[in-house]
Amino acid sequence: MDNELQRIEDWAGGLLAKVSPVERRRLSRKIGLDLRRSQSARIASQRNPDGTGFTPRKNRKRIRNSTGRLKRMRSEMFPRLKMVSRMNLKSDQDQISISFLDKVARIANVHHFGLKDRVSKNGPDAQYPARRLLGFSQTDEQLIRDSVLRHLKD
């Protein structure tokens, strides 16, 4: 990830040094909003930043509730993590940061790095596969380049 950030910094650093702080703040806010939207769409499509699919969820047995009816199983992973409202955006003239809010940050951290976590409050521990939730894809780098060039053109 450091290599991805360094490439963007090398390309945009010189261009943005000549722009006023107010304009850089506006540009970073716009880029941040676009990146947050892009990350959300990528999580919804269940793709890692490099374009590979997330490791599929483990097959579970059909679960019956107390009346004997089968519970509906969701095939979609991270229905709440993909919401833009669950992602925190901080930007100023020098930096942009996108992170998850406190309540979902723990879940995102476990899945992003493939850590071990408790399945439920009194349940067993499980080792989760790594699924990179946040990161730069080729389209994100292109989005940043286009935003900077469009801003400098105006």
From TrEMBL:
Organism in which the protein naturally occurs: Oxalobacter paraformigenes
Compositionally biased tracts (Basic residues): 57-67
Pfam family, one: Phage_tail_S
Name of the protein described by the UniProt record: Phage virion morphogenesis protein
Domain of life: Bacteria
UniProt-annotated stretches for the region Disordered: 38-67
InterPro entries xrefs: Phage_virion_morphogenesis
Compositionally biased intervals (Low complexity): 38-47
